[in-house]
Amino acid sequence: MRDRFTRECAGTKELFFWFEMSELAARLLKTKPPNQLLRYVAPEYANTGLLNEKSDVYSFGDVLLEAITGRDPVDYGRPAQEENLVDWLKMMVGSRRSEEVVDPNIETRPLTRALKRALLTALRCVDISRF
C-alpha cells in the first residue's frame, strides 16, 4: 500500500473511502448527546413510535450523509434551500455538483465514483417514498 487509500489493485481506494465513512459515522453517533440523536429518527417512527428495519436504514443514511458533508441533518443557520440536508443533497446531486458537498475537513478526497455511490446509497436510505 502506497498510502492509506491507494493500493495496486483496482477498486480498493473506493473500498477504503467506504471504511473511512463508516468509521466517521460511528464516531459521530458516539459524540452526540441523546437529545440530538432524535434527528436521525425515521419519519415513520416519529409518526407511529414503532421501530423496524427501515428505521435503521433511514438512520444509517442520515448518519452517512452527515459523515460525507460534515453538516447536520437540519441547520436553520443556512439559507432556506440548504436547511434540510437531504433536500439540499438531492438538489446538488441532481445538478451534478456532488464534488461540492464533501466536508472540507476530510483529508483525502474520495474518488468521484466512490463519492457518487456513497451519496446515492445514502439518499436511497433516506428516501421516505420507499417506506
Automatic annotation (TrEMBL):
<keyword id="KW-1133">Transmembrane helix</keyword>
<dbReference type="InterPro" id="IPR001245">
    <property type="entry name" value="Ser-Thr/Tyr_kinase_cat_dom"/>
</dbReference>
<keyword id="KW-0067">ATP-binding</keyword>
<keyword id="KW-0812">Transmembrane</keyword>
<dbReference type="InterPro" id="IPR011009">
    <property type="entry name" value="Kinase-like_dom_sf"/>
</dbReference>
<dbReference type="Pfam" id="PF07714">
    <property type="entry name" value="PK_Tyr_Ser-Thr"/>
</dbReference>
<keyword id="KW-0418">Kinase</keyword>
<keyword id="KW-0472">Membrane</keyword>
<dbReference type="InterPro" id="IPR000719">
    <property type="entry name" value="Prot_kinase_dom"/>
</dbReference>
<dbReference type="InterPro" id="IPR052232">
    <property type="entry name" value="RLK_Ser/Thr-Kinase"/>
</dbReference>
<keyword id="KW-0547">Nucleotide-binding</keyword>
<dbReference type="GO" id="GO:0004674">
    <property type="term" value="F:protein serine/threonine kinase activity"/>
</dbReference>
<keyword id="KW-0597">Phosphoprotein</keyword>
<keyword id="KW-0808">Transferase</keyword>
<dbReference type="GO" id="GO:0016020">
    <property type="term" value="C:membrane"/>
</dbReference>
<protein>
    <recommendedName>
        <fullName>non-specific serine/threonine protein kinase</fullName>
        <ecNumber>2.7.11.1</ecNumber>
    </recommendedName>
</protein>
<dbReference type="GO" id="GO:0005524">
    <property type="term" value="F:ATP binding"/>
</dbReference>
<feature type="domain" description="Protein kinase">
    <location>
        <begin position="1"/>
        <end position="131"/>
    </location>
</feature>
